[in-house]
Amino acid sequence: MKAICKPDFFIVGAPKAGTTALYSYLKQHPEIFVCSLKEPQFFAEDICGHQRNVTTLSEYLRHFDHARAVAVGEASTCYLGSPGAAQEIRMFCGKARIIIMLRNPIDVMYAEHSERLFDGTEHITSFPMALDSKEDRIWRCGHFSGERVSRLEYRELVKFSEQVKRFIDVFGWQNVHVIVYDDFVKSPRNAYNEVLTFLGVSPHDKCRFEVIHANRRVRSIIIHDLLRRPPKVIRGLLRTIVPLSSRRQKIGNYLNALNIQFVARPALDQHFRKRLALELAREVRDLGRLIDRDLSEWTSI
């Protein structure tokens, strides 16, 4: 009988805190296998519901069919904010190791707003207005087009002190490794080496520390949405004109690339940033005490 391979380490978040970069660096290590799908989201049913990228255990395990490595893992940033993910992961793998990446909550919310605009789960283009809005968000395009978006609100997303504590309570400090985004940006190699030690794999000096996930913005939302989910008429016409699906995919990828800009995110208005810093000061202090790190710079203006 074929042995079932499954992950034993999890990069659980926070979102927009360097998880994609770390994931890409770990993929380069010969003793590490990471799921080819970033964000399977399997253990976050409580906040993502059926809108997860992977919804069944059999489908989830198929992503690890070819895992033959010292350390096997995946990365899903929604796990950190999920009230139930820590226990779900513990039941699945009692010896799981947890990697948590943390960033200034103001920057996380601002960057997440940009990402949601890009992926079609946010329609309010003003960040201050989106932050305070209680209206439902509707999937603008894609597989769940027209459905209510099942995601944490921005402020819920950055309640890091209780989220981190939840994982520590379940797994113990010895099985939780915390990375502060500022340190990761300053020296990705040092952060990477510390993760290798945490995972118990050999040193690796051939990793390429490339910048991953610069801020993305679409030139045309209409074209972006059409490329992600073309109407049936257009899909049928494309199949007639371009019979090979691989060629259609290449054409779609090319057009999508032309429609995407990589541009720096505008600086937040200082008055608004100060308001958020005052609002989040206690949360940042609590988090700093929990991880034994002075984070006061995050809320100093």
Provide a compact summary of the structure.
With 301 residues, the chain is α/β, with parallel strands linked by helices.
- Enumerate the spans where pLDDT stays under 50 for 5 or more consecutive residues: none
Give a short account of the largest sheet. 5 strands, parallel
Would you state the CATH class of the largest domain? Alpha Beta
**What is the H-and-E element order?**
EHEHHEHHEHHHHEHHEHHHEH
Rg of Cα set: 20 Å
- The count of DSSP E runs of length 2 or more, i.e. the number of strands, is 7
- Name of the CATH homologous superfamily of the largest domain: P-loop containing nucleotide triphosphate hydrolases
Amount of beta strand: 5-15%
How confident overall, as mean pLDDT? 89
Helix content, binned percent = 40-55%
| Order of adjacent strands in the largest pleated sheet | 2-3-1-4-5
Number of helices: 15
Q: How many structural domains?
A: 2
Kindly list the characteristics that best describe this protein.
7 strands, 47% helix, alpha/beta, 301 residues, two-stranded antiparallel sheet, globular, Rossmann fold
Overview of this protein structure:
This protein is an alpha/beta fold. The protein has 2 domains: 9-105 and 153-209 and 270-299, 3-Layer(aba) Sandwich (Rossmann fold), CATH 3.40.50.300; 216-262, no CATH class. The chain has helices spanning 19-26, 45-48, 57-62, 78-81, 85-92, 105-119, 127-132, 154-157, 160-171, 181-186, 188-199, 221-228, 232-241, 245-259, 270-291, and strands at residues 9-13, 32-34, 71-75, 97-102, 176-180, 216-218, 260-262. The strands form 2 sheets. The chain has a 5-stranded parallel β-sheet, with helices on both faces. It has a two-stranded antiparallel ribbon with strand order 6-7. Helix 9 (160-171) runs parallel beside helix 15 (270-291).
